[in-house]
Automatic annotation (TrEMBL):
Residues 73-410 form the DUF4185 domain. This is DUF4185 domain-containing protein. Residues 1-24 are annotated as: Disordered. InterPro entries: DUF4185, TAT_signal. It comes from the Bacteria. The lineage of its organism: Bacteria, Bacillati, Actinomycetota, Actinomycetes, Kitasatosporales.
Length: 415
């Protein structure tokens, strides 16, 4: 490997119908080789994000239906120094009306070759076509156009002052008031014992120069190896700043491994004033909790679980056109599912499978787009409405230096 930073040994174990080879094992095997491995984010989306669907011959609607956004020779990601990467969490860059995409594991070459860049990594786009007529195309990278780099200043497989950590994985990103925020999980191990989530801690990093340089808030939420296994603050999704002035945040246990059977699909909800969040006064949050026989906002009780069921991995919640939309990778159902609600604290609809790993079983998967080895499934905050979501879905085939290791764009998803 040409650089001194080892590939992030992420673990993407799939359900029984898929290979159970650990990415930790695969990537470790690759070390030493030449191939190294709110409405809209607190603000209204630009008018171009709500453009009508583009027609083509016969007037039919043109949509992206699994368009790869990286890991293709000569594509727009490669032009910005990123060959292969996953997640690509989209967010609205409020200060100039552009769009950012935050990747996890990233390499300079396709098929996870070349130099391992790190995690998280960011590519940006000057405009987003919400009609689905044209796919996302990246126009510059952080920190330097044409040269993608790891955003956070830390070392992999080291103790960076908090305990041993393998990597820091982004869960969501938001910008408001001139500051950009990434919530992340620091992973201690991708192969934890049964019943443990394998995290070191979770934190929030911020940037006051729109993503070039980053600092960490001093407060971190302790994880598994710091003595708090299954913390409900492991993974966050920023639903956005509601018209009522509150920043709504959903959170859950860390399950980036997809094998945390203690996850239970549990999700909680809290809110905080944007100025208090900016100040790092996280104790000012209000919690959506079931207290004394009823649901209420309170600071005197912790958040209650609002949803539970199958184990879930990555998840995303965004306010789209006045409707709150949720998407997540359902590990047990082997699908990206969606739900909707009128308000963050309202009753959520039943889950709907949208993109599936196997479209032959169960019957609810019949006719759905099929993506083996899928995960992720982030809602693009520039989606025009809840019946026409753009989802960014990750796919990895379980093998190092083989395609695919990328993100795919799907448009026109009715949540």
């Amino acid at each position: 490997m040409p650089d001194t930073t080892p590939p992030r040994p992420e673990h993407r174990t799939q359900p029984e119908s898929r290979p159970t080879t650990s990415r930790r094992t695969a990537l470790r095997a690759g070390m030493g080789l030449t191939a190294g491995a709110l409405g809209v984010a607190g603000a209204a989306a630009p008018a171009s994000a709500s453009a009508p669907s583009a027609p083509h011959a016969g007037g039919a609607r043109v949509l992206q239906a699994g368009t790869p956004l990286c890991d293709q020779p000569g594509d727009s990601a490669a032009a910005q120094g990123l060959g292969s990467g996953d997640l690509a969490i989209p967010y609205y860059r409020e200060h100039d009306g552009t769009w950012g995409y935050v990747f996890g594991d990233s390499w300079t070459g396709i098929q996870q070759t070349g130099t391992y860049i790190g995690s998280p990594v960011m590519l940006n786009q000057d405009r987003f076509d919400a009609s689905g007529a044209t796919p996302v195309s990246f126009t510059w990278a952080m920190p330097t156009a044409g040269r993608a780099g790891q955003l956070f200043d830390y070392r992999h497989d080291q103790n960076n002052g908090h305990g041993f950590e393998v990597s820091r994985i982004p869960n969501d990103c938001i910008e408001f008031g001139g500051r950009t925020y990434i919530q992340y999980t620091s992973v201690a191990t991708w192969t934890p014992p049964a019943g443990y989530d394998g995290s070191l801690m979770s934190g929030v990093a911020y940037s006051d120069d729109h993503g070039v340089t980053w600092r960490d808030y001093p407060y971190h939420w302790a994880g598994d190896t710091q003595g708090v296994n299954q913390s409900m603050y492991g993974m966050w999704s920023f639903a956005g700043i509601d018209p009522d002035g509150w920043l709504y945040i959903f959170s859950k246990r860390w399950n980036g491994t997809h094998v945390n059977t203690a996850d239970g699909g549990a999700i909680q909800l809290f809110r905080i004033r944007p100025d208090r969040f900016r100040a790092g006064d996280f104790g000012a949050q209000e919690n959506w909790a079931f207290v004394d026989g009823g649901w209420r906002w309170t600071r005197s009780a912790p958040p209650s679980v609002i949803l539970s069921g199958n184990n879930i991995g990555e998840f995303s919640v965004k306010r789209i056109g006045g409707t709150y939309c949720m998407s997540y990778f359902d590990v047990a159902d082997y699908s990206i599912r969606t739900r909707t609600a009128a308000r963050p604290d309202a009753v959520w609809s039943a889950p709907r499978p949208q993109i599936v790993g196997n479209n032959t079983l169960p019957p609810s998967h019949w006719g759905k787009p099929q993506v083996p080895f899928l995960y992720g499934g982030y809602i693009h905050p520039g989606s025009p409405n809840a019946n026409a979501l753009t989802l960014i879905v990750s796919q990895w085939n379980g093998k190092l230096h083989e395609p695919p290791y990328w993100v795919l764009q799907y448009d026109g998803i009715a949540a």
